[in-house]
Design goal:
Blueprint (H helix, E strand, L loop, with lengths): L10 H66 L11 H75 L4 H6 L25 E3 L5 H11 L7 H11 L3 H6 L2 E6 L2 E11 L2 E9 L8 H15 L4 E5 L5 H6 L3 E7 L6 E8 L5
């Protein structure tokens, strides 16, 4: 007969999940701040500094011209006594004006060089932090969902002692716990629209959903090379489907759209929402969006957030989402809008 595990407290897991989310929020905020600061500096160089030193060239050119005129005047005209006038001061003024004009011209050249170098360094930075940014935005929510599942399972296990049961009794009766036996862990499936049936996904469909997501972004005509750069954040894993709300819509036995949520209250992320490129403009995306909003509301979230392809931002804005930040893209030179949508919790 198997012995029961001794579980006294789940505070460590709960605290760890809290700190995990705080880390994710701090990381995303730091990345956004760094991106904002780099763009501010680049804008300052290209606009303010560029315009300032171009203006200085014009002003200093005029000063040099006036200094040369005064020097020529002294050289041409004699003094009232008929002697040649001293030009020492005028020659000094001309030399100073020339040095100041040369300085302004060098500043303009330095601004152009610095702008190019900064642009290159920004692109290098984005490439170096892309993997970290993806982990903070995608991997942390998956890990938090796993912790939620672990806590729910252990709480159910501990509740047996409070109700007079024991782990030994469960084991001896063949009662290994399953997800369906835990009310808190049952997937929430709100009634789907009659026109577009939507059901919960199963882990075995992970590869199909990944393929659908990669095909879906072809709507925006990404090259094969760009599509490969998009692959890592679009991969749907079996363990993610097993621990997160993921729903699909299908036609004739083939999945043609899906969405997935991740996160912990009060915020939830719309990690995925993709439609088969051959089935666009049929209302599938809108139906999946409303289903996701209903699911998130029933789960008690206060706000839904998502990172959108720039080409899809208008679609989400039309549905009521609003941009509040931006983040790095897998593609060089591209930025992704981050949007939010307030939820009316059903809890």
């Amino acid at each position: 007969m198997a012995e029961g595990a001794k579980v006294n407290s789940l505070d460590a897991l709960k605290h760890f999940k809290t700190y995990l989310w705080k880390f994710s929020e701090a990381a995303n905020l730091a990345l956004a701040d760094a991106e904002s600061e780099m763009q501010r500096m680049l804008l300052w160089l290209e606009t303010e500094q560029g315009a300032y030193w171009q203006g200085q060239i014009r002003k200093r050119t005029e000063i040099l011209s006036r200094a040369n005129e005064l020097l020529r005047y002294k050289q041409i005209y004699k003094s009232p006594t008929g002697s040649r006038q001293s030009t020492i001061e005028e020659e000094k003024a001309v030399q100073i004006a020339k040095r100041r004009l040369l300085e302004a011209q060098e500043k303009v050249q330095n601004v152009v060089k610095s702008s190019r170098r900064l642009t290159k360094e920004i692109q290098t930075y984005k490439g170096s932090v892309q993997r970290f940014a993806t982990s903070a935005q995608l991997d942390v929510p998956v890990a938090a969902a796993k912790l939620d599942n672990m806590v729910a399972t252990l709480e159910a296990y501990m509740s047996l002692g409070a109700t007079g049961g024991s782990s030994t009794d469960a084991a001896s009766s063949g009662g290994a716990f399953t997800r369906a036996e835990l009310p808190e862990d049952r997937p929430v499936e709100p009634p789907p629209p009659d026109e577009i049936p939507i059901r919960g996904a199963v882990p075995e469909e992970a590869a199909t959903l990944t393929d659908l997501a990669l095909r879906s972004i072809q709507t925006w005509r990404y090259s094969p090379e760009e599509t490969e750069l998009w692959r890592p954040p679009l991969i749907v894993r079996e363990d993610y489907i097993a621990t997160s709300p993921v729903f699909v819509t299908e036609r004739d036995g083939r999945i043609i759209g899906f969405y997935g949520l991740s996160g912990s209250p009060p915020h939830v992320r719309l990690a995925y929402l993709y439609v088969d490129p051959d089935k666009v403009r049929l209302g599938l995306g809108t139906a999946l969006w409303h289903h996701a909003i209903q699911t998130a509301s029933q789960l008690g979230y206060a706000e839904l957030q998502l990172t959108s392809d720039p080409n899809a931002e208008a679609f989400f804005i039309k549905l009521g989402a609003r941009r509040f930040a931006k983040t790095a893209s897998p593609l060089e030179g591209q930025e992704l809008p981050v949007l939010r949508f307030p939820l009316a919790s059903d809890k």
